[in-house]
Structures are given as C-alpha cells and as structure tokens.
TrEMBL record:
Residues 27-238 form the MacB-like periplasmic core domain. Keywords: Cell membrane, Membrane, Transmembrane, Transmembrane helix. This is ABC transporter permease. Its main location: membrane. It is a multi-pass membrane protein. It comes from the Bacteria. The lineage of its organism: Bacteria, Pseudomonadati, Pseudomonadota, Gammaproteobacteria, Cellvibrionales. It is found in: Cell membrane. The keyword Transmembrane helix applies. Belongs to the ABC-4 integral membrane protein family. PANTHER family: ABC TRANSPORTER PERMEASE YTRF (PTHR30572:SF4), MEMBRANE COMPONENT OF TRANSPORTER-RELATED (PTHR30572). Residues 283-395 form the ABC3 transporter permease C-terminal domain.
C-alpha cells in the first residue's frame, strides 16, 4: 500500500503512455473475446455430426448424350450393377448429392391449403436403398417400399404418397408429438403426404443454411438427362472401388459422360470458408496479443531507463530486487486492470450489435472472463522481463551523475 501513492504519481506523469497501453489492451480484449465466440461457433458447426457414413461414400454424376435416353431403365440397370460390385455395401439414386452445396428446398405445412406458418426443408427424391447407403439411423417408423416409388417425366407433376423426414424437421412440425402417420403438406396443397419414418440426422445440402438439418425424403425418380448415384463401400475400400466404377458403368452404357467424387470432398468444400475463418481469426488474435505485448515491453523498458537513478536510490536505501520487480509488475497490473475493465464493456457492447445486425453468437461472461485472464497473463508476462531487468540495476547508479 505504501507503494501505491508514488506509483499513481508516476503513472500520472506518464499518463498519455499509460492510457495508450490501457486502450490497446482494451481493444485487444474486445476483439479477441468476440473472435473466440465466433471461432468456437465455427468449430462447433464444422464438428457437427452429419448422420452420414461420409468416408465410405462415392458420388457419381452422369449426363446422358441421347435426347431420348431411357433414364428410368438406366437407373435400374446401373443400381443392380453397382450393388453387385465387390466391397460395395449398397447403392442408391438421388436428385442431389448430400452436403454438396446443391439441392432443392420447399415449404411444408401441417394443415391443408395453408399459406403461412410453414417450415422450410431440404428435399430429396430417392428410393428405398437411400437410408442404408448413406448409413442413416432410422429411429422411428419404416423405410420406403418399392410399391411406393414414383417414376415420372421432367414436366410431369405427381403427388408423393409418403415421406421420411429427419428428427429435427419432425420436432419443428409436430413438437412433443409422435410424427409417424401424421400428414405433411407441400406448399399450399390439400394432398396429405404421410410421414412413415424418421431418421436421426441428415444435414441436407447446405451446411450454412439456417434450416440445415430439416430434410424430407420422397420415393421418386424423375426421367431427366442427368442423375446422381451414391455408392457405399466397405470401410477402407472406397478408393479401390472408385477405380473400377467408371469403367464398369461405361462398359454397360457408353452413351453418357460420367464423373465421380468421394463425399468427403464435398464436405471439405462445404466447410472451406468456415475453416478459413477459423485460421484467419486465430492468426489475428495471436498477432494482436503479440503487438500489445511488444507495446508493454517497450513502455516498461522506457520507464525503467527514465527512472534508473531513482531505482538506484531505492536500492541504496535498502530496497530488495523483489521490491523493485514487484513495483513495476504492480504498476503494469494497474494499467492492465484499467484496460481490461474498459475492454470488457467494449466487448459486450460490440457483441450486442454483432448479434443484432450480423447474427453472430452471443458473448457470455465465461469466455469474456477467460479472455480477460489471458490478456492479463500476456500483460504480466510482457512486463516480467523488464521488471527483472529493473531489479538488477545497481545502487551505484544513483551516484553516477552526481
């Protein structure tokens, strides 16, 4: 306590420098704390379970060359061929590849002819092997049957008899209710689509979509010029099977252009922006911490050089090295405490506007407190070496200019 008055007096004489460091610490805390919640949110997003056996699945897209191509017949023959290949667990056809960034969506209702209050959902046209091929977990109800399949031309409209949906979508449609057997209405239609099954999880086509996880599957194949197959292999055999797929499909029917890609590539591409943001923000946080540490080191050394004679006098009067080091560390702590107080308020205010205007995650007190401790630790560590240097100043320094 006896050191507090001369310490405050010294800080007042150098108030501009002390204030600049405090503001630098405040700005660093405000930025880093918001970076932490954004990075944490992105990491949680990237690590979400997909509900799909991603590492075992190959996606195949082909475009038929003839205009009068019999897509329905080709799909049947291709799937039979794919399922008989060695190390293949199952194969299916779908209108879009999951987690690829490409898909279709619609608004669904629980009442006929409803126009407001609907729930948006990704939608897939597929067939009974879809669930097993993707490795989806059917938690309620049943799968499609072959008798429920719908085959139709591009301009033909058909009403779906049944649907399998994700549990997330089911909870939004019928909260706290058993959805099996309940109706689903597409748009403002009056035709009921019976919910026959619920799968545990499927992210859908767009991982960044606010409604990711709302997915509905319908038993349908449309006779278009292009089609997507999904092939699930035995664990560890994906790359080996991939080498033979195009060859076998081309041998069966050469009148098309075939492209293949493993599903994990689609997943990686879907999260490339999130991964980039995590890396960039982490680098920014590290650079800010380094810059503020350099500022503290420079300011502390400057003050020590200015007060070398006074330090020598204190040493001559009996002050120990520990007393000198403690003095400068406490002085630094006062500056850091001021900066952290200002920075905490600034962080919460900035986060409020980020949540309101940009839908960013909220900053809670726990990550803010952790970031404040980290900033304090950086400040303490940066001041430690200059403080030890000050403690080593000889008492003889007090007499050199006399």
């Amino acid at each position: 306590m006896l050191e507090l008055k001369p310490m405050l007096s010294a800080l007042w004489r150098n108030k501009i420098s002390a204030l600049l460091i405090a503001l630098q610490l405040a700005l660093t805390l405000a930025i880093i704390s918001n970076i932490v919640v954004i990075v944490q949110d992105r990491i949680e997003k990237i690590e979400r379970p997909t509900g799909i056996a991603v590492e075992e699945i190959i996606a195949i897209n082909f475009m038929a060359i003839p205009q009068d191509y019999d897509m329905i017949g080709a799909v049947s023959a291709d799937l039979e061929l794919l399922r008989e290949l060695p190390h293949v667990k199952d194969a299916t056809v779908t209108n879009q590849v999951p987690i690829s960034g490409s898909g279709s969506a619609g608004t669904f209702y629980t009442q006929p002819n409803q126009e407001i209050g609907g729930t948006n959902s990704n939608r897939y046209n597929t067939e009974p092997h879809f669930i097993d091929t993707l490795g989806l977990n059917l938690v309620a109800g049943r799968n499609f049957t072959d008798a429920e399949m719908q085959f139709f031309d591009p301009n033909e409209l058909k009403e779906m008899p049944v649907a399998v949906i994700t549990r997330q979508f089911a909870e939004k449609l019928y909260p706290n209710q058993d959805p099996i057997g309940k109706p689903l209405y597409d748009g403002n239609s009056s035709h009921p689509i019976e919910i026959i099954g619920v799968v545990e999880r499927h992210l859908g086509a767009w991982v960044s979509w606010p409604n990711a996880g709302n997915v509905a599957f319908f038993p349908a194949v449309r006779n278009t010029q292009d089609k997507n197959y999904l092939v699930r292999t035995e664990p560890g055999m994906r790359d080996k099977v991939l080498k033979t797929l195009v060859e076998k499909l081309s041998e069966r029917d050469p009148q098309r252009v075939i492209k293949t890609r493993v599903l994990s590539e689609y997943v990686a591409r879907s999260y490339v922006r999130d991964n980039l943001m995590v890396k960039v923000l982490t680098i920014v946080a590290a650079m800010l911490s380094f810059i503020v540490a350099l500022g503290i080191v420079g300011l502390t050394i400057f003050w020590i050089n200015q007060r070398a004679k006074q330090i020598g006098v204190r040493r001559a009067l009996g002050a120990t090295r520990a007393n000198i080091s403690r003095y400068f560390l406490l002085e630094n702590s006062l500056i850091a405490g001021t900066g952290i107080t200002i920075g905490s308020a600034a962080a919460l205010i900035a986060n409020h506007y980020m949540v309101r205007d940009y839908s960013q995650p909220s900053l809670t007190l726990v990550p803010l407190a952790i970031c404040a401790l980290l900033v304090l630790l950086v400040s303490f560590t940066a001041a430690l070496t200059p403080a030890i240097r000050a403690a080593n100043i000889s008492p003889a320094t007090a007499t050199r200019s006399v």
